[in-house]
Amino acid sequence: MNAATFISKRIFSLSKENLSSTVMRIAVASVSLGVAIMLVSIAIVVGFKNQIRDKVVGFVAPLHIQALNQNESIEETPFLYDSVLKARLDKPFVTAVHPTANKAGIIKTDDEIQAVVLKGVDSSYDWGYIAEHLKMGECPQYLDNERSNEIVVSKIIADRMNLSVGDDVRIWFVDNDMKARGRRFVLKGIYETGLSECDERFVYCDLSQIRRLNGWWNDEVGHLEIRIDEKVDVAEANRSVYFSIPPELVSYTAMESYPQIFDWLELQDMNVVIIIALMLLVAGITIISMLLIIILEKTSTIGLLKSMGASNQLVRRIFLKRSCRILLIGMLIGNVAGIGICLIQKTTNIISLSLESYYLSSVPIELNWTYFAMLDIGTFLVWIVMLLIPTMLINNIRPSKSIRFE
Question: Which has fewest Cβ within 10 Å: 109, 129, 182, 293?
Fold first, then answer.
């Protein structure tokens, strides 16, 4: 045990009833609270970003391909999904390609009317995401050689139109000659993802229905949804796909499809930065004040140590060692408290949210241990640097005056 450690253990104590011990306990509480708040903030924001991103990607796929034109309407320009395009999309990171098409329509009942977008999918479509969010019924099983009239609607649409599983649903369309045409469908399932931008609009149907309504060939599609390996960067994958497809087609990402959602998520990062900065500042000021008070209270001790030959560096190390110990105690308590709160919320979902406003029914939590470790290390280093400021006062303490201070 070196001299600085030995002396610091003898002259400091959290158990004694004096001013310095009281200030140290306040510093421990401040550090604990700051660390806990920072950990919880990071866990919530990471959970928000990942869960909402998964919702968007699950609904619309990471990448899309559509015809390159100036058509801004719901009605899509068809293109051929033939063997040549399939070969160009045969890439190691592509896990699935789903032919789809959208068409605007109107659901009409005796009492209600609702504008919707039919999303046509075929037998190869992966219903995994929708199946996880089904509230009633089941997902249809479409066949390539048979046209199905089964559809899946969102809970929002079903509630507005007073629909239940098994009901007949009449949907009206307007063709190119501005003539209205009606089609009868059967409600097979009701889903709820929480993404109001999607739930309020989309109705799943057989792609063959849209091909027939639009007069398309069997190998024509409105757009392609491309699923990719989760380990692959989306932007890089999109760039690779873009330069592989014919010039009359264009690819884009889910972020480009729903920029308002991803922009909102980016704002959450700024909120976390502000919270962390405030916690670092508040707790840092507290521990600086603590060290200043301890130095003032131990002025005579500092003078005595200097009179016995202790250097300024040794005395500063004595105070820094005790301050580091207080920091570590506070950070340990803060980590236990912060991670404990996260685990309670993750397992019980005790704190709920408005699904319409936040896209989630409860506060999301994701325990990213890498982020937690980086936060702890970075926070500790910042506070150590801040503690160097008050220790500079030790250089100005003179033994001849400080010993008489007591």
Answer: 182
Q: How far apart are CA 41 and CA 49, in angstroms?
A: 12
CA distance 14 to 245: 69
Dump pLDDT digits (tens) for 66-97. 998 756 667 788 999 988 899 999 999 999 99
Q: What is the DSSP letter of 117?
A: E
Model confidence, pTM? 0.76
> What's the angle, vertex CA 196, arms to CA 152 and CA 67, rounded to 5?
70
Angstrom distance (rounded) from CA 208 to CA 202? 17
- Position 47: which residue type? G
Give SS3 for 286.
helix
Is 346 within 8 Å of 367 (Cβ atoms)?
yes
Measured in whole angstroms, how far is the alpha carbon of residue 176 from the centre of its chain? 42
Give 113's strand partners: 108
Q: CA angle, 307 as apex, 305 and 312 as ends, to 5°?
A: 60
Residue 61 amino acid letter = A
Residue tagged 């993750």 (tokens): 346
Return the number of other C-beta atoms located less than 10 Å from residue 101's C-beta.
26
Question: What residues pair up with 76 in beta bridges, in sequence order?
Answer: none
Distance CA 190, CA 158 (A): 7
Half-sphere exposure of 88 (CA within 13 A, CB side): 16
Span 174-202, pLDDT tens digits: 876 677 888 899 999 999 988 887 888 89
The two tokens of residue 72 are: 């801004």
Residue 146 DSSP code: B
Which residue from 207, 283, 203 is spatially nearest to 26, judged by alpha carbons? 283
